[in-house]
Each structure stands twice: as C-alpha cells, then as structure tokens.
Specification:
Blueprint: E1 6-7, E2 11-15, H1 21-27, H2 44-56, E3 63-72, E4 77-89, E5 92-101, H3 110-124, E6 129-134, H4 139-147, E7 151-157, E8 160-166
C-alpha cells in the first residue's frame, strides 16, 4: 500500500522525500530535541542519506516504514516528522509510531494534531495495535500520546514506557 498526504485541520502529513532534508536539518537543529532519545542533530547531508534509506523502505519484507514530514499549511513550512513502522503480528497489523516537532513550533498543538492524524489514518488502514515508546520524564510526548488515544502500559523497553491503543476488531484486516 502506498502512503499519501494526510490532511488535518492545520497540518499536512506529506510523505517523506530526500528533498526535505535541507529544510528538516534546520527544523531539527536544536540539541534539546535529543535529550530523551539521545544522539545529536544531523547535518543536511546526513539527513539526505538517512531519508534515502527510509524512502527506499525496510530491508525486511515483513516490515513497512511509513514516514511523513509535518507541513504547517498556513506558514508554508515544515515543522517536524511522524513515522510508523508496521509489522504483522499474530492478531493483525501493529504500528510503532513516533513524532518530533522542532523547538520553534512546540507548544502550539502541532505534535498533537499530527499524531492524532497519524493514528486516525492508521486505523483507517486497518492497523490493529498502535504503540509508542516514551521516556517517563517526557511529559509533553506523553500528553501527545494520550491525546492521540494511546495509554501507558506496564511494559518498558530501553528505559521507555510503552503506550498503546488497540483498534476495533472490524478494522483489523484492511492493510
């Protein structure tokens, strides 16, 4: 299945392209974005290489990578990314989701709107279980997950709490 643009009230989730790397390098340049996930900001050149790998798709045929940039339509600029890694599980499709919004655009509900749009789109595609892994001290990301319909579970992975939302059974077989 091909991904397309996902529209919400203020943002468009646009399928990731290598051409987004230069603008996204500026969007993601703040080292503060890496406090909870580690690493450091990538240069435009490093993002071009990373985006080329992501656009090419997962080397594992049982895994699908869907990646979008978040475009704030009114301001005509990119503000972050959302992504979903889709795998087949015993009881249907599962998506691991993540989001990041550049520091200048935080606190405006953009991450929440983008995550809600992503989760809604995944449900329309028949993804049964949607998960995110969030550092226990990352309160802003926890608020985004909650607004997108995910709830914390008792499961931990690499120091992060698994948040999860099960999707209605009637939608489980569409992907």
């Amino acid at each position: 299945m091909e991904t397309g643009t996902v529209e919400t009230g203020r943002v468009s989730l646009v399928p990731l392209a290598v051409a987004h790397a230069d603008e996204m390098a500026e969007v993601l340049a703040d080292p503060a974005l890496h406090v909870f996930v580690g690493g450091s900001p990538h240069s435009a050149q490093a993002l071009r290489a990373r985006y080329a790998r992501l656009v090419a798709g997962s080397p594992d045929p049982s895994v699908t990578w869907w990646n979008w940039v978040i475009r704030l339509r009114e301001e005509k600029c990119l503000t972050g990314t959302v992504q979903a890694t889709i795998t087949a599980a015993e009881h249907g499709w599962t998506a691991e989701v993540a989001w990041v919004v550049g520091t200048p655009w935080q606190g405006r509900g953009i991450a929440t709107e983008a995550a809600q749009g992503l989760v809604s789109w995944l449900r329309e595609q028949g993804v049964r279980v949607i998960r995110a892994h969030i550092h226990p001290d990352h309160h802003a990301s926890a608020a985004v997950a909650s607004a997108a319909g995910l709830a914390p579970t008792g499961h931990w992975q690499d120091g992060e709490i698994r948040w999860e939302s099960a999707v209605a059974e009637s939608r489980a077989n569409r992907v």
